[in-house]
Write a structure and sequence with these properties.
This protein has helices at about 5-50, 65-75, 80-85, 95-110, and strands at about 115, 120. By secondary structure, it is mainly α. The chain has one domain. Strand 1 and strand 2 form a beta hairpin.
Length: about 120
């Protein structure tokens, strides 16, 4: 076998390996997203039942930026701005509400969320 053929075969193997890993990663990302959605639903249910504000459920680490918290909250659902405010525990804080509005505008401009009939959804 010549060098060109060997290189082509190795390239094909590596490309297939990358594709398989990317598919597995997509499956795992979907499972993580579903688990986060379920955790958030539990948080919202608990908040509704107890009337207490709750901190947003965070993943591993610090939980990320406000934009990431919004994206996590919107996973698998459509929410009004007021529901996002309540879900993040910002109901009594006008400064945080303003920050949230700015973050929503920026996420919309970035094409990560859509606003339809007053409901924000992930794109």
């Amino acid at each position: 076998m010549d060098l060109v053929t060997a290189m082509a075969e190795e390239r094909t193997k590596l490309t297939a390996l990358i594709k398989a890993i990317e598919e597995k990663k997509a499956e795992l990302d979907a499972k993580i997203s579903q688990a986060r959605t379920e955790l958030r639903a539990l948080d919202l249910y608990e908040s509704a039942k107890t009337g207490k504000k709750i901190a947003p459920t965070k993943g591993k680490g610090t939980g990320g930026s406000l934009k990431q918290q919004i994206l996590t909250l919107l996973e698998g659902r459509s929410l009004k701005r007021a529901e996002i405010i309540e879900g993040l525990g910002y109901k009594d804080d006008k400064g945080k509400q303003n920050s949230l509005s700015t973050a929503l505008v920026n996420l919309k401009k970035a094409g990560k969320v859509a606003l339809t009939d007053g409901l924000y959804t992930l794109k």
